[in-house]
């Protein structure tokens, strides 16, 4: 990679792979969650993630990026941890609390990735792309806050 543009392309490919993997993992999280609000939050985020993936595809088309087989190793690891928790023998409320912890790790990772990409896009003068990425960043932040509220104002206490 010789410049910020190439690093930006690398970031976009990474996010593309991350969202793609998450689309496959979220249904298991929806299924495992016991708390109805948590189930709903995960299933809403699955819909959102599908839209985000479509937006990334759009960005790739606009910028002539071929996402190819680039794999986001970090997302693979985060999902593996989540699957580990899902297979644990744990009380429902405890599993819910653990699922939130896994999901928030994922959101924090995505917030970091989109935050960086928005700034690269701005620096490189890709204004329209920056706006598209910033919208996803907002969704990830909102999702993280929603999960945080569910944990702090209910699920963690249920798990005590
Ligand atoms: Fe996402």
Question: Descriptors for this entry?
Answer:
mainly alpha, elongated, single chain, 160 residues, Ferritin
Compact description:
It is built from five helices and no strands. With 160 residues, it is mainly α. The chain has one domain (4-159): Ferritin.
Characterise this structure.
With 160 residues, this protein is mainly alpha-helical. It has a single domain (4-159), classed as Ferritin, core subunit, four-helix bundle (Ferritin, Up-down Bundle). Helices cover 84% and strands 0% of the residues. The protein contains 5 helices and no strands. The chain has helices at 4-32, 36-62, 73-86, 92-123, 127-159. Fe (ii) ion binds at residues 19, 49, 52, 110, 140.
Please outline the helices and strands.
Layout: H1 4-32, H2 36-62, H3 73-86, H4 92-123, H5 127-159
Fe (ii) ion binds at residues 19, 49, 52, 110, 140.
Cα separation of the termini:
49 Å
Task: Give me the CATH superfamily.
Answer: Ferritin, core subunit, four-helix bundle
Shape: elongated
Give helix and strand order, one letter per element, not per position: HHHHH
State Rg.
Answer: 16 Å
- Count up the helices: 5
- Please, how many domains? 1
CATH topology: Ferritin
The level 1 CATH classification is Mainly Alpha
- Specify the structural class: mainly alpha
Stretches with pLDDT under 50, minimum 5 residues: none
**DSSP strand (E) fraction?**
under 5%
What is the CATH architecture assignment? Answer: Up-down Bundle
Number of strands: 0
- Helical percent range? over 70%
What is the residue-averaged pLDDT? 97
Bound molecule types: fe (ii) ion
- Largest pleated sheet: none
Pfam family, one: DUF892
InterPro entries: DUF892_YciF-like (IPR010287), Ferritin-like (IPR012347), Ferritin-like_SF (IPR009078), YciF (IPR047114)
């Amino acid at each position: 990679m010789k410049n910020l543009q190439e690093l930006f392309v690398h970031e976009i490919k990474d996010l593309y792979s991350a969202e793609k993997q998450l689309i496959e993992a979220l249904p298991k999280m929806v299924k495992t969650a016991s708390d109805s609000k948590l189930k709903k939050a995960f299933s809403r985020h699955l819909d959102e993630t599908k839209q985000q993936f479509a937006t990334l595809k759009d960005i790739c088309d606009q910028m002539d990026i071929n996402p190819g087989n680039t794999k986001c190793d970090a997302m693979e690891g985060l999902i593996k941890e989540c699957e580990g928790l899902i297979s644990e023998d744990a009380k429902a409320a405890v599993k819910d609390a653990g699922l939130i912890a896994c999901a928030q790790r994922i959101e924090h990772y995505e917030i970091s990735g989109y935050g960086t990409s928005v700034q690269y896009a701005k620096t490189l003068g890709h204004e329209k792309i920056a706006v598209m990425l910033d919208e996803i960043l907002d969704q990830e932040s909102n999702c993280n806050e929603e999960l945080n509220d569910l944990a702090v104002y209910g699920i963690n206490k249920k798990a005590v």
